[in-house]
Structure formats: structure tokens, C-alpha cells
User: Which sequence fits this backbone?
């Protein structure tokens, strides 16, 4: 048996035990574990890369996580649930989830991408690094692809059960870390109180390729900049800008 075949068998056995399922179509899971870079080095690999499954898994994850926190936290308003969900399934949290599932051991990736995963691991363990700026899309995308594979193979209810069982171990960390502060809403309320108008957000810089853009956003009131923030999405950058504005002006 080749090393690749051995790794495939190990992966299936692991997922069946980890998720307490009997896999029907192994091909879904091999595709979920296949990064596009691996195909460049292994032309005869019979499976597609995981981008389509990632697309599907993202939708399954959004609905499952929304359902989970909606019923788990009946006292949370929409303004609290929305950032909670965003922080629970962002790229950093998904990367951590991937590590909790040992996906880094089962992925089929190129040597170069493997080095990027190892670098992420070393940075994650480095307490001097700003964790909010850490991302590992190889791991995050693989988690979503895996959820897509489980959905196709087992149906939505099983996929949802698997996802919720995982998220339960991370939701307290997210709530504690963010203290459920919806900074944009808080800032808007403050601006309405002081100036009777909403703050203005504007992208002042964007860097990186189209699929991985890092944004810097400015928030202003009456043409005066009151905060800057950055993030891997405009929404995250706006939230950070609002947080910094509140801190700078000592409104909160």
C-alpha cells in the first residue's frame, strides 16, 4: 500500500470515529482534504480540489451556527447575535477548529502550503503575536469543505449536529474574548446622541490578492476622522475602527 493510500485510509477511519458516522462516499472527504496546490504536484490524483465543497460547507456552517446561537442564547438581540456568529466562524476561529480536528495531519497539500500551515502554528503559539491578524486559509477552507462533505454524505441534520458539537467548545471563548461588544452599534448610538447623525466609514487602503484582501477603514463624523481599523473583511475593519474610535474618544 502506498503512503497516500495509507493516509486516505487513516483519514476515513479517523473521521468515522471522531464524528461517530459511517461514511458512505469516501470521495467527498478526499476532495474536502485536497488543496489545489496538491494537484499541481500530483497530476494523477483522482479527486478535485476542495473549493466547491468549501462553498457548500460555508452555507451549511452559517445556517447551523445561526440556529445554534439563536436557541442557545434567547436573550441575545440581533445586534449581539450577528457579531457573535461572525466571530465564531471567522477564518482564525475556523483555523483553530481545524487544529482541534487534527486536519493539519490529514490534508493533501503542497510542500509550500504545508510550510505556511507550520508557520501559522508557530505564530499561534507565540504570545507576542497579535492573534487577531493571524489567518490560515488552507485550514479554514478545509474545515468548511469538510462540513460540505459531511452534509453531502450524511444529510443536513447530521452535519448540523457535528458542527454544533464542535462550536460548543469554542463559543464561550468567543463571548468572553469579545464581551459581545457590537462596537459599530455602540458608536452609532453615541453619534446620534451627540450629533444627530451616523458616522461615515471609508476604505482608505486595501492590500493583497482578490481572494485575500486586508482592509484599512476610517470612521469619521462631520468630516473628522475619529478612528482607524483593519481586518480581512470590510466588516471586520469597520468594527475595529468603531472600537478604536470609542477607545480614543473615551466614550466607552
Assistant:
Amino acid at each position: 500500500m502506498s503512503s497516500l493510500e495509507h493516509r486516505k485510509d487513516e483519514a476515513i477511519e479517523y473521521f468515522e470515529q471522531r464524528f461517530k458516522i459511517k461514511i458512505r462516499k469516501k470521495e467527498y472527504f478526499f476532495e474536502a482534504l485536497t488543496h489545489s496546490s496538491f494537484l499541481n504536484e500530483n497530476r494523477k490524483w483522482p479527486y478535485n480540489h476542495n473549493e466547491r465543497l468549501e462553498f457548500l460547507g460555508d452555507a451549511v456552517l452559517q445556517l447551523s451556527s445561526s440556529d445554534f446561537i439563536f436557541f442557545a442564547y434567547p436573550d441575545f438581540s440581533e445586534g449581539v447575535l450577528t457579531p457573535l456568529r461572525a466571530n465564531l466562524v471567522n477564518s482564525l476561529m475556523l483555523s483553530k477548529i481545524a487544529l482541534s480536528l487534527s486536519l493539519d495531519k490529514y490534508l493533501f497539500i503542497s510542500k509550500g502550503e504545508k510550510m505556511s500551515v507550520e508557520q501559522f502554528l508557530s505564530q499561534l503559539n507565540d504570545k507576542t503575536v497579535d492573534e487577531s491578524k493571524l489567518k490560515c486559509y488552507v485550514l479554514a477552507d478545509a474545515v468548511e469543505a469538510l462540513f460540505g462533505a459531511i452534509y453531502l454524505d450524511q444529510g443536513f441534520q447530521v452535519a448540523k449536529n457535528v458542527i454544533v458539537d464542535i462550536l460548543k467548545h469554542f463559543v464561550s471563548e468567543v463571548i468572553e474574548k469579545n464581551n459581545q461588544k457590537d462596537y459599530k452599534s455602540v458608536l452609532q448610538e453615541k453619534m446620534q446622541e451627540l450629533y444627530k447623525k451616523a458616522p461615515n466609514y471609508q476604505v482608505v487602503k486595501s492590500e493583497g490578492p482578490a481572494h485575500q484582501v486586508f482592509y484599512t477603514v476610517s470612521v469619521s463624523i462631520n468630516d473628522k476622522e475619529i478612528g482607524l481599523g483593519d481586518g480581512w473583511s470590510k466588516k471586520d475593519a469597520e468594527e475595529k475602527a468603531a472600537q478604536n474610535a470609542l477607545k480614543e474618544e473615551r466614550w466607552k
User: Anything to note?
Assistant: The radius of gyration is 20 Å. The CA atoms of residues 144 and 195 lie 43 Å apart. DSSP finds twelve helices and three strands in the chain. The chain has a mean pLDDT of 90.
